[in-house]
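User: What would this chain look like folded?
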Amino acid sequence: MAVDGLFNGGDKRSFSTIPECIDAVAADEIQIGVVPLENAIEGTVHLTIDYLIHQVRLPIVAEIVVPIKQHLLVRKDFTGTLEDIEQIHSHSHAIAQCHQYIHKNMPNAGIHFESSTGRAAEVVAASSANIAAIGNHLAAKTYDLNIYEESIHDYANNHTRFAVLSKRTEPISVTLPEEAYKTSLMITLPSDYAGALHQVLSAFAWRKMNLSKIESRPMKTGLGNYFFIIDVNQPYDHVLFPGVQAEMEALGCKVEILGTYPTYHVNPS
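Assistant: Here's the prediction, encoded as structure tokens.
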């Protein structure tokens, strides 16, 4: 849905996992990769962030926000009730987005995590058991499933941010109007500097640079070692950002630019 909304056609290729998609961009098997970054209900998709930071560093060239509607999907020959469903298959984030619905309506159904909601739909389509998937209308259409019940996610304002990754230097061609611009930074603090995070944030504050997100992630080098992902709501320039970087480096911080990019939204259909 994110790919179709942003590019409106063209050759597409699906991957079973987020790392496989990122690896394909790095290996030049595909020109552009689209991977989930954050869900409004479940928060950051840590696999994406950690893989981009620790394994394969690729620039973020765009961001697209997609409204997410999770439906309960069954085979077309299923004639039972919710109580007859023995298993629920989906991605862990989709399961979490529908936790209250599952708790109230199918408390005894076994939960099976799949690599994606699409893979969950595929599993249900190939099975003869009384099982269901959680996924969107596109998954239902692709695998010829019925939507047993629509919009079963626990909160109405369910959106997911996707990162568009590419090694290409030229701007990508998209079909949606640009809505805003954003710059993402990775900042590593010195381990022995009291008040460093406060001073880092002050470097943005006195320049009146608005931050839309700040999140810590482990460096994976030992307990207590973290880096920060900071999103700034403006494009990278050659005045404010170099000043911020110089100020932070004077504190002993390491600053890396993960991307400066336009943001887009897919309107709900």
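The first strand starts at residue 32 and ends at 39. If you want, I can go into more detail on any region.
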